[in-house]
Design goal:
heterodimer; A: mainly alpha; six-stranded mixed β-sheet; 31 helices; 15 strands; 76% helix; B: Purple Acid Phosphatase, chain A, domain 2; 2 domains; 22% strand; elongated
Chain lengths: 1313, 425
């Protein structure tokens, strides 16, 4: 993308500035200091990224020479599409407007998308920068450099990335560390605790069930206990009853006994003694009362005689009361009288004053008669209003006349002014071809673009044509456009080529496969032969066995086995035979022993019995002293007895020995038979051994070692045979394999021949196709594709050549038409025709003239319009003045008429002629006031008269009363005292009369009382005597004695009744008292007390138990209730869920942080691996070139704060160690690196450098210029400078670089090369 | 035959806690207590409803409580509720479901006189009114949590006169989001010839067949998480003297606390104060929507706008939430803001930013590639093993699925843009 045009409406020095035809590649803009270079740079930045805000410290470049701040630029993309970018200062830096090639208008977003979302900072620091920006790095610390310079590639600061990573890690670790105390760890601990608590709570149901069981058991126990307690309590109650009844029971028995001793009395007056006492007392009281009455009567009579009554006052009582009642009124009236008189005279005076103010013609009578009714007043009011309206109208009319006259005057002035201006204005030209010039103006831009475009298009066409020629030359010498156009490159043809290609390829592949197969088979055969040779060699090394059949060897092995077993049998038989022989010898010895024993028994008897008999005889003779005779006889008998016993024993032994001997002989004969059998078996075994030995081909002494040795020999023979046989088998197999390999080799050879044939066919077919297609027959199918592709490309190129030709024709037509237009317009205007190069100038001139003409026309018309309007105004205002005068006259007439009517009215009312309606109304008000005052005076006069009359009448009444009662007659001023005296005396007479009456009544009453008491006394006497006779007594003493006896009787009966009653109460209604009594009769209090005590003890102890049990039940119930109502589990669970929610949220946050960290790291690795090296490599290349190879490497690991360079001798240097110039060269290199990196993915943007080579030494400046020129092939570069030397330097490398000279915000010299 | 009426409830889940309430410790004790008691209060409302409307019986289609929770209080409150009905002469019919199977833990509580609990074998019970059997209820309870696919086959009409009800805890039509216990198709239920299918298990109100036979889930009586928002309740059904349902069942809300979701777009709001005012207005809306109920709400902030950056600062977001909670608490009845879900985006055009050839562009492209590849996504799990593979935490946190990781990546993307383009903190 390049800048094609800059138009500045207003910006700093610039006003209405246009910079056109900016070329691609490098262009120099030369200008002295303050010539407007920096402003131009600032304008470019502003138009792309908005005008800086007034709040920033940046230079705002106000438009010093007028115009609206802003302008537009034209950008041309590599596809030659033009975009007009426009921005004027406004809110948020001003609104950006882009006109797309299709004429559509879009905003900021579309522009950003077009320029690869480049930011202001990147543009300012990388694309359009001045020496200031370049040097700024030098004064900043290294970190800042990185942040600024790398922001281009990172889209954000490198430092920011490291910091973000650190922040993320810190935040993540705040949430969780595997062995830390962080938020998640804390939550996990809390959850553990909660889980434990929940598990504990979950044990509650078991506890509940257990407690329920316990509770049921306890309740059953308690019921039983309660039942026992109830029984005990019932018994205790009974015992208590018995104890309680015991006292009554004993008293009852005693009372009954006492009652029996008292004589029976049928009746006696109730309360006899008391009644007697009462009667005696009453009699005494009556006597006392009679005495008292008599004394009182005497005293009253004395008092009565001492009282005196004034009767005359009593007769006049009514009159006196009447006087007393009116007294208060009299006093009040007397007091008011002077006040009323004074008020009366004041009212009279006021009225006289009012009358005077009305005028001498007014009297009381006239006032009374005069009509002040509402209609009369209303009439006066109407006069007042109409007169006032008429006056107002006249005043208004006067004011209007003044205003109309003023406006008229103004209008006339305006008209005069307009006329004057019209005379001085230049008149617009006539016969000016405005429409033609407008059309020229409209078409001009298009014409200019077309003119600019024509050159480019022609160059393009030439380039395309050359390319096409090259392409055709590649295809073949006889190829031209015509042939190319005719050549079929359709898909079907391509398909055919592909098929041929595939066929040839297939054949070639088959041949290759077959050759490979042949080689493989050859290898196989050689391998098989080798194997066979080896097998033969192996067989040769193996001895040929004597026995070649396994069966024979097996037979010999079986015989050997049998011999081994027969030998074992033989050994066994021999051992047995030896054993038999030993047994025979033993038996023979036994038999011999028995024979000897038998011989010994047959010859002697033993002598020991005789010796024993003798010894016993001797002992008996000596010891007992038996007679010798007796002794010898006994001995003889003893001896003979022993002897016969011995004889019998001897015979028995002989028989036994014989028996044994017989047995031995039998056993001997059996042994002999066995020995013979044994010998026979031995012989048979020997025979068999010999037979087997024959089979086993053995001879000689056949013992086990011999057999073993023969066995081993046999084994060796077997192995040998097996080896030999295996060798033979292997040899056979190897021979077979060899034969197969030979066959396969034959087949592979056949296959090769076939494949060769096929290949030949495919190639022939291909050559034929080529010939038909008009292509060189030597073309290989693999190249044919390329040729076809080349032909396709060439055709594409041909197409574009044609398009370009079309386009050039169209452009030329446009230009021609435009020129024709110019010519005809000039002709119409009568101007000279101009050459083509002056068309632009002419158009500008014409446009300027057109504008001037339009301006003149507009102004002329405007003033003419104003003049007309002023004339109209004057006319209108004159009419207004006239109308106002007429209206004023009408108003005066009307007012006069109304005044006359009023005069008549005054006359009719009898008012003075000079009176105005307002005055008349006021007079009405005063007349009303006077009339009211007159009424007041009359009222006061009446009041005064009435008061005087009342006072005199009252005084007369008092005098008359005093005269009647003989009292002194009072004057008018003493009336009050006289009245007081009369009233007082009347009261005294009334009091005396009352008292006398009362005393007389009292005396009468006392006489009657005394008489009545006397009667009562005699009645009392009678009552006493009646009572005595009723009690069967003649005197009071006897009566009292009899009363005591009767009372005692009654008391005992009452007591008995009470006891019975209490006992019944104890037993209760419905229970038999008799049973209770019987029970009482059967026990004693001691027994009962004992029982009571024991029951109480039992109850107490059981109650204690019950209480304890009840407490336990209560405890259990409470515990169950608590378990039922316990919300702890749900509280814990809710808390757990809440914690889990917190945990999940925290885990999510942790995961987001962790993944963000991970992905940033990954992206960073990718960036470092894939993107950054390109930036640095490019930078390295430029830096190395700038410095003539002094520096070879630029390193800047991401995230580290160091930028390092490496010299050609591998010395590492940091920026701080570089000279200012070298550092600037490094920064420039890095910028080039980034610009290239940027261009890899986006449309290349133009670059603007403002005097950046100042600090470069001549050599490096030259290399830098070389690099800049190289760079300018891909990017448009505007190089601003104030040093002509820089221009020379550039021209020394490339003298075609265009140079513009700029001064005072204007281009003064255009494209000096 | 006399007319009658009944109430159909399911999934009471007595004493089951509310799920997903973050930072509950900030809530006023009154709020916490209300949330904790909500399932009980909802059940009380059901009982009150039965008594006030003088219905004849109550049907409970399983999952009265979670046996695994071993909540004594839940069982006792349940028993007490049925006892209240029994005293008022109202019968109750109960089946147990997968959460409270017969072999699950139960306390030896004696059920009241008029309560019938179905056993593990299919049983049919008649309901008699004024001496006449008016309804026949068929039901069975889960013997254990995991039952075979054939469990509960064999529901069949008995007799022709009575109104026939199937009381069953099952998943009809493979409703997603619920375990496929006793899977049935709608057709199977229709074929059984019953008049009313009183179902339980699905927590949403769901009517599978509005006409004869009526097949429906009343849903749970109280929502317990943000996905169970809106009114929750039971069906009140009236059956005429002809043995037909008088109209569609009335759905009557019973929930004590209502869950409500709201969205708010921040675009066009310039200041935090503006946002707060908008949110306050939202809270009023929520309160009006909740009627007489206290509400638990989740407000999701969406859209692009200036405020996004402020919201990304934890302290600002926390302040906003605290302030909202304070406002919600002062309302009567209260509104508890369970969560402020932030799904806002910066004003930056991320798609455009992704195209730029710079570091951030690289990073955003990397994220996009990851999101498109489930294999690479699942490899990200390896980087989270420090936490998710950690002994205690791993047991408590569900492993992340590919969809979770993809959602996390959305947030990561926003964070990257915020961090790398945002102001220095």
């Amino acid at each position: 993308m390049r800048l094609a045009e800059i138009h500045i409406d207003g910006f700093g020095l610039y006003h209405n500035f246009t910079f056109k035809d900016l070329p691609p590649g490098l262009a120099i803009i030369l200008g002295d200091n303050e010539s407007g270079k920096s402003s131009l740079l600032a304008f470019l930045r502003a138009i792309l990224f908005g005008f800086p805000d007034a709040r920033t410290n940046q230079n705002l470049y106000p438009p010093l020479r007028g115009g609206r701040k802003g302008g537009r630029i034209v950008l041309v993309r590599s596809d030659n599409e033009r975009y007009v970018v426009e921005r004027y200062d406004g809110k948020k830096g001003g609104r950006l407007r882009v006109v797309f090639p299709d004429g559509s208008e879009r905003g900021e977003d579309a522009f950003r998308q077009m320029t690869g979302a480049i930011s202001r900072d990147v543009f300012q620091n990388v694309f359009a920068f001045s020496l200031g920006e370049l040097q700024e790095f030098d004064s900043l610390d290294k970190d800042e450099i990185r942040q600024t310079i790398y922001s281009a590639g990172l889209g954000t600061g490198a430092r920011r990335i490291s910091e973000v990573q650190k922040q993320l890690a810190v935040q993540r670790e705040k949430l969780f560390l595997p062995r830390g105390q962080r938020k998640i760890n804390h939550l996990l601990s809390q959850l553990d605790q909660l889980n434990r608590a929940i598990r504990e709570c979950q044990q509650e149901p078991e506890k509940y069930t257990r407690l329920h069981g316990e509770l049921a058991g306890k309740r059953t126990d308690l019921e039983q206990l309660e039942s026992r307690l109830r029984q005990k309590r019932q018994r205790l109650e009974r015992v208590k009853l018995l104890l309680a009844g015991w006292k009554d029971w004993t008293s009852l028995r005693q009372d009954r006994k006492e009652l029996e001793d008292i004589p029976e009395m049928e009746s006696f007056p109730i309360d006899g003694v008391a009644r007697l006492d009462l009667l005696v007392e009453r009699r005494r009281q009556v006597c006392d009362q009679i005495e008292e009455g008599k004394r009182k009567r005497g005293a009253e009579e004395n008092q009565l005689t001492s009282i005196h009554i004034e009767t005359s006052f009593l007769k006049e009582a009514d009159k006196i009361r009447e006087i007393e009642r009116s007294r208060e009124t009299f006093e009040k009236e007397s007091r008011q009288l002077p006040g009323i008189e004074a008020e009366h005279s004041r009212a009279e005076n006021q009225f006289q004053e009012a009358l005077y103010s009305l005028g001498p013609e007014w009297t009381k009578d006239r006032i009374r008669r005069f009509d002040t009714s509402v209609p009369v007043r209303e009439e006066v009011r109407r006069f007042r209003d109409s007169l006032s309206v008429a006056g107002d109208e006249a005043r208004t009319c006067k004011a209007r006349i003044d205003e109309a006259e003023r406006v008229l005057k103004h209008a006339r002035e305006v008209e005069e002014d307009a006329r004057h201006r019209l005379e001085t204005l230049p008149r617009p030209l006539e016969n000016f071809d405005e429409q033609g010039i407008q059309q020229l103006q409209l078409g001009y831009e298009h014409f200019q673009v077309a003119s600019g475009d024509l050159g480019t298009r022609k160059e393009e066409l030439q380039h395309e044509q050359e390319s096409l020629k090259d392409a055709l030359r590649d295809v073949g010498p006889d190829w031209n456009e015509e042939k190319l156009e005719k050549f079929d490159t359709s898909i079907a043809v391509k398909e055919e080529v592909r098929e041929h290609q595939a066929a040839v390829n297939r054949a070639v592949r088959r041949l290759e496969d077959a050759e490979k197969g042949l080689a493989a088979e050859d290898n196989n055969l050689r391998r098989a032969e080798k194997i066979r040779d080896e097998a033969q060699k192996e067989l040769d090394c193996t001895d040929e066995p004597t026995i070649k059949e396994n069966a024979l060897l097996e037979k010999r092995r079986a015989a050997l086995c049998l011999i081994r077993s027969q030998l074992t049998q033989r050994d066994k038989q021999q051992t047995r035979l030896e054993h038999i022989e030993e047994r025979q010898l033993d038996l023979e010895e036994q038999s011999q022993g028995l024979t000897e024993q038998a011989n010994r028994l047959g010859s002697i008897l033993p002598l020991w019995p005789a010796a024993a008999v003798l010894a016993i005889g001797l002992l008996a003779t000596i010891g007992i002293g038996l007679g010798a005779f007796v002794s010898s006889g006994v001995l003889a008998v003893g001896y003979s007895l022993i002897r016969s016993w011995l004889k019998r024993r001897q015979q028995q032994s002989m028989a036994l020995i014989e028996e044994q001997t017989r047995n031995l002989k039998e056993r001997l004969s059996k042994l002999e038979t066995s020995g013979e059998d044994c010998l026979k078996a031995l012989e048979e075994i020997e025979e068999q051994i010999q037979n087997h030995a024959l089979k086993a081909q053995l001879s000689g002494d056949l013992e086990l070692p011999v057999i073993d040795k023969a066995g081993e020999e046999l084994e060796r023979m077997r192995d040998g045979l097996a080896r030999w046989k295996a060798g033979q088998e292997k040899l056979r197999e190897a021979e077979e394999a060899q034969q197969q390999a030979e066959k396969a080799l034959e087949q592979a050879k056949g296959e090769i021949n076939q494949a060769r044939r096929q290949k030949q066919i495919a190639q022939e077919e291909w050559s034929q196709w080529l010939r038909q297609a008009g292509l060189r027959s030597s073309l290989g199918p693999e190249i044919a594709g390329d040729v076809l592709a080349g032909l396709s490309a060439a055709r594409e190129r041909l197409k574009s050549v044609k398009t370009l030709r079309e386009r050039i024709r169209a452009i030329e037509k446009t230009i021609g038409e435009y020129r024709e237009n110019v010519r005809s317009v000039l002709e119409r205007l009568g101007r000279e025709q101009v050459p083509q190069e002056k068309i632009s100038e002419t158009i500008n001139l014409l446009v300027a003239e057109l504008k001037e003409q339009e301006r003149r026309k507009q102004k002329w018309e405007e003033v003419l319009r104003q003049l007309k309007e002023a004339g109209k105004n004057c006319e209108r205002e004159s009419k207004n003045v006239e109308a106002a005068h007429q209206r004023l006259n009408r108003a005066f007439q009307e007012e006069e008429q109304k005044r006359q009517a009023w005069q008549e009215s005054l006359h009719r009312l009898g008012f003075r002629e000079s009176l105005s309606p307002v005055g008349a109304l006021e007079l009405f008000e005063r007349l009303e006031g006077s009339r009211t005052k007159l009424d007041g005076i009359e009222k006061l006069r009446d009041q005064e008269r009435a008061t005087n009359r009342f006072v005199n009448e009252y005084h007369q009444k008092v005098i008359l009363a005093c005269r009647t009662l003989g009292q002194a007659e009072p004057g008018q001023d003493k009336v009050g005292i006289a009245v007081d005296s009369l009233v007082e005396k009347l009261s005294a007479a009334i009091d005396a009369q009352g008292e006398s009456k009362m005393l007389q009544q009292n005396i009468g009453k006392l006489k009657e009382e005394i008489q009545a008491r006397g009667e009562t006394l005699s009645r009392r006497e009678k009552e006493i005597s009646d009572l005595l006779s009723a009690g069967g007594a003649s005197c009071q003493e006897e009566f009292r004695r009899r009363a005591a006896l009767y009372e005692k009787h009654q008391e005992l009966e009452r007591m008995i009744h009470e006891h019975e009653g209490r006992l019944q109460n104890l037993v209760g209604l419905g229970h038999t008292l008799e049973t209770f009594k019987k029970e009482l009769a059967s026990v004693t209090p001691e027994v009962l007390n004992e029982e009571k005590q024991s029951i109480e003890e039992i109850i107490e102890s059981e109650q204690q138990i019950s209480k304890e049990e009840n407490q336990k039940v209560g405890g259990l119930e409470k515990e169950l209730g608590q378990l039922e109502a316990s919300g702890e589990l749900s509280r814990h669970r809710l808390e757990k869920e809440a914690h889990l929610a917190d945990l999940r949220a925290a885990a999510r946050e942790w995961s987001v942080l962790k993944l963000t960290e991970h992905l940033i790291t990954k992206a960073r690795e990718k960036y470092e691996r894939e993107r950054r090296p390109d930036v640095l490599k490019d930078a390295e290349r430029y830096f190395s070139h700038f410095t003539g190879g002094r520096y070879v490497e630029v390193n800047a690991p991401l995230g580290e704060t160091q930028v390092q360079v490496v010299t050609s001798d591998q010395q590492r240097l940091e920026i701080g160690e570089l000279s200012r110039g070298t550092a600037e060269q490094l920064y420039l290199s890095l910028r080039f690196g980034f610009v290239q990196e940027y261009a890899r993915s986006s449309e290349p943007l133009p670059l603007v450098f403002d005097d950046i080579l100042v600090n470069f030494d001549p050599e490096r400046a030259r290399t830098a210029v070389e690099s800049i020129l190289e760079f300018s092939r891909s990017h448009q570069i505007l190089l601003f400078t104030c040093h002509p030397a820089t221009v020379d330097l550039v021209h020394s490398v490339d003298d075609s670089t265009p140079v513009w000279r700029i001064s005072e915000g204007k281009i003064t010299n255009k494209a000096v090369a | 035959m006399p007319a009658f009426s009944f109430v159909h409830v399911a999934d009471i889940h007595l004493d089951s806690p509310f799920v997903g309430l973050e930072h509950l410790e900030e809530a006023h004790p009154h709020v916490v207590e209300t949330l904790r008691e909500a399932t009980f209060k909802a059940f009380d409302t059901v009982i009150r409803l039965c008594i006030d409307r003088e219905v004849d019986f109550l049907l409970i289609a399983g999952d009265v409580y979670d046996a695994a929770d071993r909540s004594l209080r839940a069982q006792i409150r349940f028993r007490d509720g049925l006892a209240q009905l029994s005293e008022a002469g109202i019968h109750s019919f109960v089946v147990h479901g997968n959460h409270d199977p017969l072999d699950g833990w139960t306390t030896a509580l004696r059920m009241p006189e008029r309560a019938h609990v179905f056993g593990k074998d299919l049983q049919s019970v008649s309901f008699v009114k004024e001496g006449e059997a008016v309804a026949c209820i068929h039901g069975l309870s889960y013997p254990k949590r995991d039952i075979g696919r054939t469990f509960g086959r064999g529901f069949q009409r008995k007799g022709s006169e009575q109104f026939q009800i199937g009381l069953f805890h099952c998943n009809v039509g493979g409703h997603p989001g619920h375990d496929p216990y006793a899977p049935r198709t709608r057709e199977e239920l229709v074929e059984s010839g019953l008049d009313y299918w009183a179902l339980g298990h699905i927590h949403e109100k769901l009517i599978l067949s509005p006409e004869h036979p009526f097949i429906g889930y009343p849903g749970s009586t109280q929502g317990r998480q943000i996905n169970e928002d809106g009114p929750r309740g039971c069906f009140l059904v009236r059956v005429s003297a002809k043995g037909e349902m008088e109209s569609k069942p009335d759905f009557i809300p019973t929930d004590a606390v209502r869950w409500i979701k709201k969205d708010l777009d921040i675009s066009g709001l310039d200041l935090m104060d503006d946002l707060l005012v908008s949110l306050e207005y939202k809270l009023n809306e929520i309160q009006i929507e909740a009627g007489q109920h206290p509400a638990v709400t989740r407000v999701t902030l969406t859209g692009r706008g200036q405020l996004h950056h402020s919201l990304m600062r934890p302290q600002d977001a926390q302040y906003l939430l605290s302030r909202l909670r304070q406002i919600g608490r002062e309302q009567d009845p209260f509104v508890w803001v369970e969560k402020l879900d932030l799904h806002t985006h910066p004003e930056v055009d991320i798609d455009l930013r992704r195209q730029t050839p710079d570091f951030l562009g690289d990073l955003l492209r990397l994220i996009k590639e990851l999101r498109a590849s489930p294999k690479q996504l699942s490899q990200l799990q390896g980087h989270l093993q420090e936490l998710y593979g950690h002994g205690r935490a791993g047991r408590l946190l569900e492993q992340l699925e590919v969809e979770d990781l993809s959602r996390l990546l959305d947030e990561v993307e926003t964070r990257c843009v915020d961090r790398l383009l945002g102001e220095e903190e």
